[in-house]
Structures are given as structure tokens and as C-alpha cells.
């Protein structure tokens, strides 16, 4: 049982690390001379432009930013609640609250990555000078990590749902 518990804790920490990297790192859309994420676009590694109110589809990017941040926060909260429930729950009870919060984190990261996938071309097309970048690039590792984090948080949420506290 101790090995299973260590695996679950390690799996949850890995999920949180993936969410942090995907949210912070600047590699959602990359090309030869540029890279972009949900916060800024950098050309030639020197000319970085923050995505702000002057951005055409700023509300869409805000939705992606907010849901990625929310998924990271929910994942961390789920871990803290898991640790509290680990010592407070009676034997045989399930970690339902932890599972619900982790599945909400999973839903948030899925929404963020889905919005970015759907609106990526429109996000850059409506902003002068950025449309040519969208044609030359490809999805970066942070974007892929966001989808991997989705799978990890989903599996983690299901593990908590079926996990019973045993001796």
C-alpha cells in the first residue's frame, strides 16, 4: 500500500509540474525565428511583444490564460486536500473531494488547450505581422505538455475516485 501511495503522490506532483511548465514556458507555437505562448510572442529571441489589450482577440487569450492558471491552482489544491484526507478519512472511505477538484483541473486544462487549438490561426491572423508566423510554425512542447497534463490529471482524478484508504 505504501508503494501505491508513493506512486499516486509522485503522479500528482508530476501532473502539477507539467501544468506549471505548460502555463509558464514560452513554447506553445514555435518556428525557426520565433516562439509564442499565451503570454507573449518573441521574434528572433530579442523582440518580445506582450499579449495585451492591443491584441485583437485578447479576450480569447485571457480565457486560455485564466483556465491554465485555474487548472494549476486546482491541481495544487487537490494535492493539499489529498494530504489532509489521507490523515483524516476513516479506512474504507474514498477521496471523492480530491477527485472532484482534480477532475475540475483536468477540465480547465482541456478547455484552455482546446480554445488555443481552435483559435490559434485567428489569434495571429487578426494581429498585423503575426499571421506569417502562424504559417511557418508548429505546436511547441508546452502545448503538447498541456495535453499530456490533461491526460495525467484525468487519470489522477480517476485514481482518487476509485482509491480507498486501506491499511
TrEMBL record:
It comes from Canis lupus dingo. The lineage of its organism: Eukaryota, Metazoa, Chordata, Craniata, Vertebrata. It is found in: Apical cell membrane; Cytoplasm, Perinuclear region; Golgi apparatus membrane; Membrane raft. Its main location: membrane. Pfam families: PMP22_Claudin. Belongs to the PMP-22/EMP/MP20 family. One of its GO terms (biological process) is positive regulation of integrin-mediated signaling pathway. GO terms for molecular function: protein kinase binding. Interacts with PTK2; regulates PTK2 activation and localization. Interacts with ITGB3; regulates the levels of the heterodimer ITGA5-ITGB3 integrin surface expression. Interacts with P2RX7 (via C-terminus). Interacts with ITGB1; the interaction may be direct or indirect and ITGB1 has a heterodimer form. Keywords: Cell membrane, Cytoplasm, Golgi apparatus, Membrane, Nucleus, Signal, Transmembrane, Transmembrane helix. This is Epithelial membrane protein 2. The chain crosses the membrane at residues 63-83, 95-116, 139-163. InterPro entries: EMP-2, PMP-22/EMP/MP20-like, PMP22/EMP/MP20/Claudin, PMP22_EMP_MP20. Functions as a key regulator of cell membrane composition by regulating proteins surface expression. Also, plays a role in regulation of processes including cell migration, cell proliferation, cell contraction and cell adhesion.
